[in-house]
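Interim report to the steering committee. The following record documents the input for Selenocysteine lyase/cysteine desulfurase (398 residues).
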Amino acid sequence: MDSTLIGEQEIQQLRAATKGTAQKVHFNNAGASLPPDVVVDTVINYLLEEAACGGYETEAKYKQQLDNTYDLVARLINAEKEEIAMVENASTAWMLAFNGIDFKPGDVVLTTEMEYVTNLIGLLNAKKTLGIEFKVILNDEYGNFSLEALEAAISPKTKLIAVTHIPSTAGGMIPVVEIGQIARKHGILYLVDACQSAGQIPVDVKEIGCDMLAVTGRKYLRAPRGTGFLFVRKAVQDQLKLTFIDGSTAASVSEDDFKVRDDARRFELYEKNRALILGLGKAVEYALDIGVDRIWLRIQYLAGLLRNQLENIEGITVHDAGDQQCGIVTFSVKGMDSATVKNLLGEKQINVSVGKAVSTLIYMNKHHLTSIVRASVHYYNTEEEIEFLCDTLKTILK
């Protein structure tokens, strides 16, 4: 692990390489980070070349660079490139993995109170259409996930453990490595939603022990919207049904049969935005060059600083709990709904977002929250921006 802190001079260089930081105080990185200029230029230049030379012709010219995106993503999560499929977002990745499982009536899925709305809908749909059951392992009173409760819930009917590593509307984290150890011990399929994790915290699929991992590009990876990827461990690829099939799915085709290709690209469709894939590759390369270990140290420092300052402002309640906390900071302002707070901060060029109850419904209902203000920090944010946010909130409260 590289424990070298990102210094002030480097932060200023990184900010200078991201035009958006000069225009906004951006604390909505859990929604969509500001992309580096080099990522934007990569996408635009590819599109311009397509327009001038033709789409197929440009793709052929950049074949090596496009293929290298798989290598970069594999390096990011310590996987093999044959285990990576490019998709549009984490929801697509999660659904491809989940719907590919051969569920039978009575099969049980174990999950957490932190599951994202898309995943919850997927579970509910499988319950209605396939007759599965799912059980939610609740966090304890301190906001920590109970590994003991998870293990106690496992039965011969347990088909899958599906967890969201970092939730949408809370600053806590789920212990994915320890959950993976339990899944492996019992021989249970393991699906991780890492859409808020990749680019924020080091992700190692071998250490986690997951069979499938879903990621989006637009959040902490600082990639373009409409990008993402799915990891499927080589050993389980043949266990998953193919939800979609087109000509690129097959390694060979005859008039009466076809043979599926032997890597994770079987889960892709042929037509996709090549400019965005190059942009994703450039964003991953950018993060790797900085060092995800260093990024994570910086994010933890800034998030801790923000939480401490918010907790010292009368009228503000910070909702984050648990021993492990991330770059997402959630809070509410006394006597004011979250949307109003967001809009007032927006007038001062401060970007935050509103976390609605539906996003992580089980968690929000448990804590009687209808919405929260979500301020999510990234390494390019500064102490001065945190101070400005807190000073603005103090003014709003007057």
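The longest strand covers residues 158-164. The committee is asked to note this result when reviewing the revised timeline.
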